[in-house]
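re: ur question from earlier - yeah i can do the single chain one, its not a big deal. heres the input i used so u can compare w yours
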Amino acid sequence: MSPVSTVRRANAWIRDRAAVLAKFGVVGVVGIVVNLGVFNALRLGPLGIENAVGGSDDRVVTAKVIATVVSITFAWVAHRGWTFKNRRRHRPVKELILFGSVNALALVIEAGTVAVTHHGLGWTSLLADNVASLAGIALGTIARYVGFTTLVFSREPGPPRGRAKPSTNVTDDEFRHDEAAKR
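and the output i got, formated as tokens:
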């Protein structure tokens, strides 16, 4: 496969998904603001180094987990009501469970990135924690997009709930009559 055909395929893939990618990006940017806002509010506030809330004097990963859960909740509402509004294929409870599962994986990626840099590498400054948080968000976003488009929301709108209407040009009355005759 030539580099030119690879670029053309990539451009076609992006063009086919431009509206969803744009909405996903907007929700993602707002989600990042929510995530980092909550993370820093907790890191500098009740879960800060100088505070003794909840035991250990270093709760940076706890702050990251809480911030991510808050941003996940925001994202589910935004994606369900806007980004993938016409692409739902599950009932809300099942959709929320799948959405939560995809985000649980992304949460492990995000918090794991912060944990590795903060505890493993010893990079404990606020700047280092925020850089690690952004790197984790980037990796988590990739996992989320793949999970949302393959598991949570279908690419195309699914058939309406219940029995699907045949693809022929049959009127609603004829369809109901045929269905009643089958019973």
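Confidence is low (pLDDT under 50) at residues 160-170. not sure if urs matches, ping me
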